[in-house]
């Protein structure tokens, strides 16, 4: 069985493993910085009372979203949770569309009708963000079933947290996907906490996703979720398996969220020093070092950082200037005829 | 024309739609090789093959979730939930996912699917396999809810449901499966949101659904024969969309309104119809509208007990007579 240790790739240094390639590596870095900047901006805007409702940030978990999205092809489908900003952005959705939705403006991805927890952009393959734990695992199975039935080559990828592994839909979906051999990839982002409670306190096995894999005839896969290259490589393997008709994969990515569960959570339940320890393994810090080891100059790295910051700054200004959604969309799109009529 | 059972009409309706459109697929527990626990899907597996007619594990969330994912991405799935009582274990999809994805996504997400289920009492199965759950579904914006009372409507409304771009809950009544009716040859396609006047009358309007329709019709004949009371019977057929024009049109003619509901009394569909009539047809009414329902209790298993709680022909006739004659 593969573990994080024996899956680890040769560390950069002398005799660097350059299976990723310069172009993809720069894309992975840019994507991670973009997710970080956008999420940090969402937090800042919340403090300014410009982001309303709730929001669940992926600060510290960017490598997973970036790594998997970079391995996707056009047409592949992402199914996200309410912690879905990063996965949505990673598929190429403009920052202003996401921040606009968080700020409940008319320029938002769903014009304020969905909110932070339901980001959807089908044109980018983002098939929704689901706020009921586990709901989207069976839904991703259904999209994969369509691909299998029609002979389409796309793969459905379903992201979820460690807490999801204890709900029934997780187990129903894994069994279903395995029995039907569906082209679907289940990606567990194990950030060690189900909301406020350590996942270890409420789960019968140490690895909440991977230790259940055997129940469904799947390989036990645990990877370093703070290393974008690791995420990218394992995503590629799972995509190849799915496209070859060899069925689903379940991948547990070890990571840590730098912020609380949601905007209301100061995360005081964490033991002292834990956050600091994980921040030493900040995925962006790790990746910046890697770029340097591969000979990318400080100025090139700073240029990426600056261009991302400008993108987020520009998006912020667009959103601040955007109007509120008009009331005439209130009852639109309840039904497919565009309206809400339930009687004649 | 041929005489067909309600059960065989389900088979014919699904087959009609699967023959027409290769994107129509069908999944559920025991539906394929076994032909369904109510034998309402016999032969479909043989006719359409294992890729289109699929047995699932006992995983109602997976069944409905998979149907939704397939619907979102281009298929037109029919999912079977064996007993409507089991909606309670997969209600997230019915209440939160199917009906809200289009709205929340500002119109991006589509969900054209049909959930077929065995609904209603009469089988002596007790409180968890006998419920009428139409009111569970009717209260959710974004769903459509249909319940046919006869074989012809099974085919026509099933076809309309499969072709509809919205998620449709299709409630088949378990006690109606063996009943027979005349069905025309060839393709049958009905339209959702249309009630039907099955018996014309002048003294009272009786609105009924599913198994309560034949009971209302029989009660109307009894009232006519024994007391000369001439009732109009409206088969509501579709709770959402609701054909209030037909219902209120009938009330304008008869000036009396009765609903016959199998669902437990609180928040049953009849309450909505009575409320609409009170709002919009108050001055057409010559007396208070009356709801004839199952009482607000779980359903008992024993035949003598179950029969005592469902609206019966005698109870309908007695209640209408008492209201009209005092």
What is the total tally of β strands of chain A? Answer: 8
Radius of gyration of CA atoms of chain B, rounded to a whole number: 19 Å
Low-confidence stretches of chain B: none
Q: Structural class, judged by helices and strands of chain B?
A: alpha/beta
Q: In percent, how much strand structure appears in the residues of chain B?
A: 15-25%
Give, in spatial order, the strands making up the sheet with the most strands of chain A: 2-1-3-4-8-7
Provide mean pLDDT of chain B, rounded: 98
Output the number of helix runs of chain B. 11
Q: How far do the termini of chain B sit from each other? A: 44 Å
So how many helices of chain A?
12
Which word captures the global form of chain B? globular
The multimeric state of the shown protein is heterodimer
Order of helices and strands of chain B: EHEHEHEHEHEHEEEEHEEHEHEHH
Order of helices and strands of chain A: HHHEHHEHEHEEEHEHEHHH
Helix content of chain A: 40-55%
Structural class of chain A: alpha/beta
Unreliable spans of chain A: 1-10
- Beta-strand content estimate of chain A: 5-15%
């Amino acid at each position: 069985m593969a573990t994080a240790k024996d899956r680890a790739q040769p560390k950069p240094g002398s005799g660097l493993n350059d299976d990723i390639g310069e172009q993809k590596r720069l894309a992975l870095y840019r994507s991670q910085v973009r997710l970080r900047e956008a999420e940090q901006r969402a937090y800042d805007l919340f403090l300014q009372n410009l982001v309303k409702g709730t929001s669940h940030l992926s600060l510290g978990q960017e490598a997973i979203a970036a790594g998997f999205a970079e391995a996707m092809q056009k047409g592949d489908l992402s199914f996200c949770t309410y912690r879905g900003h990063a996965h949505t952005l990673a598929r190429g959705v403009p920052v202003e569309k996401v921040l606009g939705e968080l700020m409940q403006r008319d320029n938002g991805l769903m014009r304020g009708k969905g909110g932070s927890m339901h980001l959807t952009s089908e044109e980018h393959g983002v098939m929704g963000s689901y706020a009921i734990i586990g709901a989207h695992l069976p839904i991703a199975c259904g999209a994969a079933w369509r691909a299998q039935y029609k002979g389409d080559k796309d793969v459905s990828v379903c992201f979820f947290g460690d807490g999801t592994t204890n709900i029934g839909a997780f187990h129903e979906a894994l069994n279903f996907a395995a029995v039907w051999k569906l082209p679907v990839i289940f990606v567990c982002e194990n950030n060690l906490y189900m909301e406020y409670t350590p996942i270890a306190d409420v789960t019968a096995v140490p690895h909440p996703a991977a230790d259940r894999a055997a129940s469904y005839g799947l390989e036990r896969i645990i990877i370093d979720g703070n290393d974008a290259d690791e995420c990218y490589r394992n995503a590629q393997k799972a995509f190849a398996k799915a496209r070859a008709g060899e069925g689903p994969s379940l991948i547990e990515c070890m990571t840590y969220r730098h912020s609380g569960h949601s905007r209301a959570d100061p995360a005081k339940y964490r033991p002292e020093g834990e956050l600091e320890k994980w921040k030493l393994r900040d995925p962006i810090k790790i990746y910046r070092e890697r770029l340097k080891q591969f000979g990318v100059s400080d100025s090139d790295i700073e240029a990426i950082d600056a261009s991302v910051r400008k993108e987020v700054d520009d998006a912020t200004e667009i959103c601040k200037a955007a109007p509120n959604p008009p009331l005439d969309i209130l009852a639109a799109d309840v039904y497919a005829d565009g309206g809400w009529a339930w009687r004649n | 024309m041929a005489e067909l059972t309600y059960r065989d009409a389900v088979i014919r309706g699904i087959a009609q739609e699967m023959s027409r459109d290769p994107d129509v697929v069908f999944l559920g527990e025991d539906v394929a090789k076994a032909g369904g626990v109510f034998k309402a899907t016999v032969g479909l597996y043989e006719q359409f093959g294992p890729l289109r007619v699929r047995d699932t594990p006992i995983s109602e969330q997976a069944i409905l979730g998979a149907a939704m994912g397939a619907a979102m991405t281009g298929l037109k799935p029919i999912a079977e939930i064996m007993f409507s009582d089991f909606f309670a274990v997969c209600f997230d999809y019915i209440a939160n996912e199917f009906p809200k994805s289009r709205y929340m996504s500002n119109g991006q997400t589509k969900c054209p699917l049909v959930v077929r289920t065995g609904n209603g009492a009469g089988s002596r199965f007790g409180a968890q396999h006998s419920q009428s759950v139409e009111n569970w579904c009717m209260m959710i914006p974004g769903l459509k809810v249909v319940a046919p009372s006869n074989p012809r409507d099974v085919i026509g409304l099933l076809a309309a449901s499969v072709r509809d771009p919205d998620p449709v809950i299709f409630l088949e009544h378990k006690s109606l499966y063996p009943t027979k009716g005349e069905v025309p040859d060839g393709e049958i396609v009905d339209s959702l949101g249309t009630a039907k006047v099955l018996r014309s009358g002048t003294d009272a309007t009786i609105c009924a659904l599913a198994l309560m329709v034949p009971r209302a019709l029989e009660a109307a004949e009894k009232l006519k024969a024994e007391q000369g009371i001439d009732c109009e019977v409206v088969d509501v057929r579709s709770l959402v969309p609701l054909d209030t024009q037909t219902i209120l049109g009938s009330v304008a003619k008869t000036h009396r309104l009765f609903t016959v509901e199998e669902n437990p009394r609180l928040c049953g569909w009849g309450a909505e119809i009575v409320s609409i009539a009170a709002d919009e047809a108050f001055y057409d009414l010559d007396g208070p509208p009356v709801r004839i329902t199952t009482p607000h209790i779980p359903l008992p298993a024993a035949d003598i007990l179950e029969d005592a709680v469902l609206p019966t022909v005698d109870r309908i006739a007695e209640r209408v007579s008492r209201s009209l004659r005092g």
